[in-house]
RNA sequence: GCACGGAUAGCUCAGUGGUAGAGCGGCUCGCUUACACCGAGUUGGUCGGGGGUUCGAAUCCCUCUCCGUGUACCA
């Protein structure tokens, strides 16, 4: 067996193993291996932005996917974790345009033109596109990189085109002049989902206007956007509003622009809420969705006073033209004030839609866009409602359902160049839609590209080589084996953008749901609970953390703090804790290794002999098992069961907590320490047997840990020689293919002679040790000292030795007739009374005080239980089980109290 | 406005009717031959407030407060 290094060096180990896994093609999925005995497990990565860099959200998300994938491999499944990146149309084009502008290459995208700019973006993509992929590799992601996809690959592009044409032919895609969300920064339309309503502090401006037909009548109007007055083409009042109804049909004089104070009509419209503002609404059909609708109903003129970049244009009048919209607002107020028509301005809070990407207020804008009536809504809604597809946590199902219920058509066209170009061509009055350009001269293609999500929604099958040709697709082994996928792991922030749409696409083109389970991660926040963001600078670079602590540590730290469905408070301490845990694991393995060199009986590293099957139990001799051995085997059983159950239910933090507790608190703190009684002794047979138990536990623990800590477990798996003698594909080559641990079943437990009560036996011993240690600490003893145990019943010598070692006692005398001198500190334990004889060094008063405190506690508990049991109201109504418990409690406290009283009496004598 | 989630020890969280828990931190000891990235001990809580149901409530019901998320055409 190769000797383990003294210190663990994660950087070297992680790089080495990742390369080895790649070289050995460990992550590559082969559909031909899928069979009834070897089911498929598949998961598609939420494709990160191709120009992005790894952030903590990616770490969380991809660690989870990796855990699921690795566990599935260990369960003997054929695993496909399909990776790739997203072209992220608007975001990527923005980044490249900005860079080019900074470099002084261009002032505007038109300086380059469409083709040249797209070329530049491709160059950018080729240069930066693999950064995030490399970062995922550093994290240990076990994706099948041979299948890496990009949403703008030729094959993928073909899928997008095919889908567009299909929907167009089905009549679900149409072009129309509508009010859309316009981003004045990116100069494109956005979908409703890309607009974030943001509460905004502003002002409500009240101004008055003169009724043309009744010059003495003035109406007061309240608005938040006075700069759009030049675009007003009516004012509206509610026809039921008695204050104004008689004015309907008359006109008011629009105050701006000054050079064109045109009369505009007063219309009656139910939309107007007469409780709000003044009950008089200025109607600007070009710049407000609701106003646009009013305009439609009353056939109003539409005056667009803004350039696409939200600078006021000539129609706004000479005073406002050329001003940015917020400057224009100030100027408009000034003008109204000069006119003497400003009444007042009041602070006002309203919701303003912000562009999700550009972070600027969007403008409702009338423009020609492409829209999609969503397909397969019914199936998509039902599949989740009926629980055929499961959401974790399931409350997202309601959110999903609600969105689908009130769903609006999707604006899918974008006025940028980086993206899938709309496959529609025009020639005069003719329109052609097809996957390639039409025959003949004079056709021009629609300049718009498609929303990035219009490609992402095909991800689960477009990445698997879908062609839309039924025959071809049914002969496609990848699709056949791995679609529908098993799990999807993503953030709830893209439940509408992506998840819901993928479900629709799955039904529409594959006639089947795209995944069976969706796990929604929480959002990573900083210690103060704020979202992580670049501008706050509170987002650590995962790569720095990996350098500092290792990828395993980062993974473990993040998973430990990520309860199901809850936001995560990130604290670097958790990563540090992950590193410490790896170190502990490393040292525990080293401890085992150091024992073998001193061992007498030759035992193979895994406690196995040549040609044995994988099961190591055969090497453990049941007759030689100590109570500690039985205890740790039972605790291991519990840990395996708990971790397995937690993973089934996507409770990753519970799984990590169990692993931590089992390995650190149970295995290292108790079992290893107790086993030293044997390992430092002279019974060679027992030593060998203890080592076999240790190997059994370690080999199981490493496997249990592997999905969480892939690197260090692999290193130790080989370092400890646990891989030796295993078939290549079952742990010989890599721990990632070793079988997922199973708890010992009833037969195996019987074989080892392990009974459930064995756990309590060992626990009593450990409790005794705890109490003894407590005595030592109370009296500030930090050296090896003599303890005396006055046992309740006879104890085997081995058990006494274990207690001695755990207590660090020198010696531990067992004396059933021990008569302590007055004032000897003592503790009542499950195994008897433990004394710490200090030969007159102790303070009788102090000991009396200590015992007195214990007694007071016992008395108060006794009182409580007695009172309860004396209460007829209680005893008559309570179930027998509870009554028994209380009865037992009563007896326990009575006994304890009696003994404490005795001790106190002895101290006072 | 509506819906959902959350509020338990200094911090992060378990705990869905029967003696309030864990990890981390804090404090006190200790370089005991795997590990100081460690070990031992110990300290922390009228379970957000108020009502109610019950023999018994962190847990069930009502109500309020605060935080978060989603959603809604109020200029």
TrEMBL record:
Domain Valyl-tRNA synthetase tRNA-binding arm per the UniProt entry, residue ranges: 843-907
Residues annotated as domain Methionyl/Valyl/Leucyl/Isoleucyl-tRNA synthetase anticodon-binding: 629-784
UniProt subcellular location: Cytoplasm
InterPro entries assigned to the protein according to its UniProt record, in alphabetical order: aa-tRNA-synth_I_CS (IPR001412), aa-tRNA-synth_Ia (IPR002300), Anticodon_Ia_Val (IPR033705), M/V/L/I-tRNA-synth_anticd-bd (IPR013155), Rossmann-like_a/b/a_fold (IPR014729), tRNA-bd_arm (IPR010978), tRNAsynth_Ia_anticodon-bd (IPR009080), Val-tRNA_synth_C_sf (IPR037118)
The Aminoacyl-tRNA synthetase class Ia domain, residue ranges: 17-433, 442-570
Ranges in a coiled coil: 841-903
Record protein name field: Valine--tRNA ligase
Organism: Brevifollis gellanilyticus
Lineage, uppermost ranks: Bacteria, Pseudomonadati, Verrucomicrobiota, Verrucomicrobiia, Verrucomicrobiales
